[in-house]
Amino acid sequence: MDTPTIYVKMKHQLEVNLSDKISIQDTTFLAGNKEICEKLGPLIVHEVKEKDHNVIIIDLLHVIDTIYEYDPIIEIESVGLTQTVVRVREQKKNRSFILFIFVWLLLFFGSGLAIMYFHEDVSMREVHQHIYFMVTGNKIEFPLLLQIPYSIGLGVGMILFFNHLFKKKLNEEPSPLDIEMFNYEQDLDQYLIVHENKSERNE
User: Fold this and answer.
1) What is the pLDDT of residue 54?
2) Which of 20, 46, 12 lies closest to 192 in space, CA to CA?
3) What would the DSSP string read from start to end of 54-119?
4) Which candidate, 185, 140, 160, 150, places its Cα nearest to that of 13?
5) pLDDT in tens, 22-57
6) What is the pLDDT of residue 199?
7) C-beta separation of 124 from 51 below 8 A
8) Model pLDDT, residue 44
9) Does domain 5-88 have CATH number 1.10.10.10?
């Protein structure tokens, strides 16, 4: 009888709740004999406990050990990723409305002051006055004909740049902020994987 070969690829991320049981099918993509894959999928590789804190690294070796405990005859081939980063969802807590308002006001006025300081630093008002004089030949202190459209355009430009209007995305393309967050999460996951491997070697 030929030895069955199962191809295993670890998923990149997974979110679970406290006390959840993490199975092979939760953390991996399996390919090969369909009947065997269906039997291996429900096998448990880890049970989430409080001591796990908020991040767990499921390594390919954990999956292989679990599979071999079930059937040592199966031949396993690894494809792609070898670790899955499992994040444990925090228990829902009552959020303070006062704290939310405080943070919102802090961000609102902080960003507003930053924009005003920038425009004062580059003398934007003088620039508008000079442009207005070049176009109309008149000198005025407040060239609202330029300042109002400029202010509106600044807000519209930020919406288009970040590709978000409240919770709604304007199109499917990722914004620069989405890219930066993705790169940050990739670096964070890599750090967690390396840190976890070092911790396991020191135990």
Assistant:
1) 82
2) 12
3) TEEEEEHHHHHHHHHHH-TT-EEEE-S--EEEEEEPPPP----HHHHHHHHHHHHHHHHHHHHHHH
4) 185
5) 999 999 999 988 888 899 999 999 888 878 778 888
6) 53
7) no
8) 92
9) no
- The span from the CA of 9 to the CA of 29, in Å, is 5
Query: Is the separation of the CB atoms in 91 and 121 below 8 Å?
Result: no
Dihedrals phi, psi of 54, to nearest 5 degrees: -110, -5
Tokens for 111?
């960003």
Which two three-digit tokens encode residue 144?
A: 């609202």
Q: What is the DSSP letter of 203?
A: -
What residues does each domain of the chain span?
Answer: 5-88, 143-192
Residue 100: which pLDDT band, with cuts at 50, 70 and 90? confident
Q: Name the residue type at position 168.
A: K
Q: Which residue has the higher pLDDT, 170 or 117?
A: 117
Give the separation between CA 185 and CA 24, rounded to whole angstroms.
23
Proportion of the chain above pLDDT 70, given as a percent: 92
Q: Residue 79: what are its φ and ψ, rounded to 5°?
A: -130, 125
Q: What angle do CA 73, 76, 81 make, to 5 degrees?
A: 160
The fraction of the chain above a pLDDT of 90, given in percent, is 14
Residues near 51 by beta carbon (within 8 Å), at least 6 away in sequence = none
Sign, Cα dihedral of 155, 159, 165, 166: negative
